[in-house]
Design brief:
about 260 residues; alpha+beta; 2 domains; two-stranded antiparallel ribbon; disordered N terminus
Length: about 260
Amino acid sequence: MKQILQTLMGYCQATVLVVALGFSTTASANEGGFPLDKAPNRVSNNASLQNGAKIFVNYCLNCHAAVSVRYNRMRDIGLTDQQIKDNLILTDAKVGDLMTIAMSPKDAKVWFGKVPPDLSVEARARGADWLYTYFRTFYKDDDRPTGWNNLVYPNVGMPHVLWQLQGERAAKFEDRKDPHDESRTEKVFVGFEQLTPGTMKPQEYDDNIADLVAFMSWMAEPVQLERKRIGVVVLLFLAIFTILAWRLNKAYWKDVH
């Protein structure tokens, strides 16, 4: 019985350690870079996921594939096969096909300098906050080959594919003395200047980006909601079992001297 209790305590300690390391990794991943905005959590909202899917296939799936996901997986967000076929498949692909693109990796490397990353698990690799901030911090930069730059990903090779929705913006920087070395100056971002209006108002654009990021987060792990529900049940079971084991252990050893 003592061995069982020690094993259970070991599992609990390991779980706490893993969670702590996870939070530590998330925090440290953003140190030294542009501060990230918190992405709204809409993974459980089917309406948001459906809108995010529409944005994804229209603006992202031209250059970026998502080969770990099939179109018919979007049944899980409330869509029928016919709705998927009529609204989300823009090629001759079938509903059961993987979300691939026509551009070959070889051509992509020639045209863009590198192969655009597959977006199946990009949300897990980068984090929802990173993506949410990234899509909202593009600005015009004539020194870049694409004419665009990004605050989260400086000198990014990707153009701002959503610029018609957001409009064209310029980033304003100020030269300020380095607080650690007064002999040096550094450029500090102080805000955006809207150059041309987009088809969406700023709040509307941010709202749609939140839906896009939610869809990418769902796509990276479609079973995440089920996993979390099962996780809660398992933790409750372990908690109840631990109490029962503790009481049984106490009852078993009470007459042993």
